[in-house]
Amino acid sequence: MISATGVLRDIRERSPAIPLYVSVTTVAGRDLAEERLAGLVDGICHAPIDYAFAVRRVLARIRPSVVVILETEIWPMLYRETKRAQCGLVIVNGRISDRAFPGYRRWRFLLSDAFKQPDAILVQSEIDAGRYLELGAPRQAVEVMGNLKYDAEPACAEPPRMLLSLIDKLRPACIWIAASTMAGVDSHDVDEDDVVLHAFQELSRGRPGLLLILVPRRPERFDQAEQKLRDAGVRYVRRTDDAVPRDITLPCVLLLDTIGELASLFPLADVVFMGGTLARRGGHNLLEPAAVRRAIVTGPHLENFAAIAAEFREQRAVLEIDEASRLPAAVALLLDHPELREEMGVRAAKLAAAKRGATRKAVDEILRQHDLAVPCWSRLSPARYILWPIAKTWALVSARQQRRKKARAQRLNTPVISVGGISMGGAGKTPLVDHLTGRLSQRGHHPAILTRGYRRRSIETTILIGAGQPAPVRLTGDEAQIFVQSGYAHLGLGADRFRTGNLLEEKCEPDVFLLDDGFQHTQLARDLDLVVIDALNPFAGGAVFPLGALREPMSALARAGVFVIMRAVPGREYEGIRRQLRAWNPEAPIFRARVEPRAWVNYVTRQPEQPAEGPVAAFCGLANPASFWGTLRSLRVPPVFHWAFDDHHHYSCEELQRLAAQARMHGSGVLLTTEKDAMNLPDSAPSVLERAGVNLYWLKIGVQVENENQLLELIESKMRQAIGLKRPQG
Fold first, then answer.
1. Residue by residue, what is the 3-state secondary structure of 6-61?
2. In the prediction, which pLDDT does 394 show?
3. Residue (of 25, 111, 103, 22) closest to 75 by Cα position
């Protein structure tokens, strides 16, 4: 968890819009994750059991681009299903211990396929690299990264108040921490709690000011450790006691019976014994006490951290004993010689600091795989065998219809630039059309927009609205209303875009048409097909409806004249998306664009206004609600409650009342939504919000296109070519 925290924080800082989810395997691990990762990740869950049905459900629910495995978590089914969905798979901080390696090698014939699945295996040492290669990992995937634990920041959390009160009361002359003590693996092995208590009794005879902080490794051992303290007649206090007992005196023991507080105690210690090293358990992490310059005592069993242990031995940064009977003498040596323990602590801290940098390497590789990944979720659908023939039929019918419509295509006298997509649902086409009309207008053009007016409630077959003229949402629909509000272009709404375009030519004389959502509307000839690819869901499951959410097969991308990857994150190249686009269309240029938050607008006053600080709730009705949640994440505005409705949802008073009540229930007096959703609220919304005592804000967005001038020049060149041709109408 400590290693994961550093990686997650670095990813969040470098790419704040990426959703992050963490899985754990124990209840204690989940409690610790919820404590340490609050506000950093988007969700915490238990890892699925390694059966196909469970793994597929979890992957389909979270829909990751990259699955990151920390250390040695080899789950063959998780690996296989991750790669079947074409997600990236990265092992970070990989290691295979001396104890585990013989077993893996024995079962290599069963595990070799799993070891071939990861795209990158970043291991701790050359020894680990050799073991992965021997078990069948591809040579090009394995790289020595170093150990993430070296990058763990020294403990900065405040020690628990109860412990500080205990220290203030007792004023101990020296503090010894026995960290993460463990039972033996069998009856012939030592129980480290017994060893530590025996050592404490021996040491305390000549050191009346000694305080031992005993930290069993697992919660189920807390009560057992207390019973041993009672049986030994040792004075003790439990961390979970409400107050420090009045009669407690030195020497005594503090039993730390909590999870997650040990790191905050290391700076208080004079000597640290690292558990799991006298019992044959393979040891625990030395780096946390080393980072705060503590002198460390270990037993001989450090197999789990062999590379780290070897470096600490070489630099004389740890005092290693070979048997349990030597523990009292080793601790006494360091307690009695402050200069020796100071020198050892300094060497340990320098060694830990010199080995940092693994986190940066890990995050570089994770983000690289994130850039390459283009998941295909239809491959995991349990209904794919039933839906495949239906999808195949849909594709054949769609292709036939496109051929017929194209053969009968009608051409307007004015150049037509189509802005469309290949997938169902929102990809950012409407904001891009609005942006391009604004830019073309600024460059002296006289643009007009042709759109169907989806979900409008008017019965008129054709509606013409002049640039800057108002029109109600009922007449236009929510998306077309955005064009009306902007006022950059004349607007024509109608299912028959050719007839609507003719009427606009007669009435407004535009010099260019932008055909909104027009890629499949091939019955209207166009001079440029601009295809929008949603960076969040580029190919809609990789299959035609109903198996996926493509409107037509991927081969249709060959018709495109230019691609725009919408909702792109700055700094990402989207190499995986580019490769797939190039496979179908090697000629069309590819641009990137991102949605840019401009201002929050108060729904009631219609004026720009920053929401009051404090908790917020959010809702939207979009085809891809993740786009709005990601925008809020990038603005550092995590909602305490959020709800997604169907695309183009028209809200009722009762729904708005429930949303306001939920916001209040979560301690928020602020609701956030999108401009499109604000247009679908009921007329009585202001009074509903006032009665509920909730303020509503919608987000005004814009679009920023990289290399925008090149895109505009390409559009203008197509306009000039069209004007230069003599074409009959109809």
1. HHHHHHHHHCCCCCCEEEECCHHHHHHHHHHCCCCCCEEEECCCCCHHHHHHHHHH
2. 83
3. 111
- Cβ count within 10 A of residue 468: 11
3-state secondary structure at position 424:
coil
* pLDDT at residue 527, rounded to an integer: 95
Q: At what angle do helices 327-336 and 338-354 cross, to 10 degrees?
A: 100
Looking only at the bridges linking them, the beta strands covering 43-46 and 562-566 are unpaired
As given in the structure block, the two tokens for residue 262 are: 């040990």
- Give the separation between CA 714 and CA 451, rounded to whole angstroms: 22
Q: Is 537 helix (H, G, I), strand (E, B) or coil?
A: coil
Lookup: tokens for 636: 């550092």
Instruction: Give me the amino acid identity at 603.
Output: Y
Alpha-carbon gap, residue 663 to 671, rounded angstroms: 7
Contacts 24+ apart (CB under 8 A), 103-107: 104/74, 104/131, 104/135, 105/134, 105/135
Determine the Cα–Cα distance for residues 14 and 17; give it in Å rounded to an integer.
Answer: 9
How many C-beta atoms surround the C-beta of residue 607 within 10 A?
8
Per-residue pLDDT tens over the stretch 238-263: 999 878 888 899 999 999 999 888 98
Residue 154 has pLDDT above 70, yes or no: no
Task: Please give the DSSP secondary-structure letter assigned to residue 141.
Answer: G
Q: What's the confidence (pLDDT) of residue 730? A: 42
Residue of 52, 58, 53 lying closest to 24 (CA atoms): 58
Taking only the tens place, the pLDDT of each residue in 603-625 is: 999 999 999 889 999 999 988 88
Q: Does residue 725 surpass a pLDDT of 70?
A: no
How many residues are present in the chain?
730
Task: Return phi, psi of residue 479, to 5°.
Answer: -70, -45
**Rg over CA atoms, the chain:** 32
User: Which residues, 6 or more positions from 74, have their beta carbon under 8 angstroms from its beta carbon?
Assistant: 104, 111, 114, 115
Q: What is the bridge-based pairing of β-strands 271-274 and 236-238?
A: unpaired
Rounded Cα gap, residues 656 and 671, in angstroms: 10
Q: How confident is the model at residue 729 (pLDDT cuts 50, 70, 90)?
A: very low
Reduced to 3 states (helix: H, G, I; strand: E, B; else coil), residue 135 is: coil
pLDDT digit string, tens, across residues 345-404: 999 999 888 888 899 999 999 999 999 999 887 777 777 778 888 888 888 888 888 888
Q: For residue 450, which of 485, 491, 486, 419 has the smallest C-alpha distance?
A: 491
Maximum mean pLDDT: which of 136-140, 148-152, 240-244: 136-140
Give 458's pLDDT tier (boundaries 50, 70, 90): confident
**CA-CA distance, 90 to 93, in Å (whole number)?**
10
Q: Using CB atoms within 10 Å of the CB of residue 728, give its burial: 0 to 12 exposed, 13 to 18 middle, 19+ buried.
A: exposed
- Are 427 and 593 within 8 A, CB to CB? no
Q: What is the pairing mode between strands 490-494 and 462-465?
A: antiparallel
Give me the residue label for tokens 């360091």: 334
Strands of 47-133 (E only): list them: 66-70, 88-94, 120-123
For residues 534 and 428, is the Cβ–Cβ distance under 8 A?
yes
Which residue is listed with tokens 């003599």? 726
CA 161 to chain centre: 34
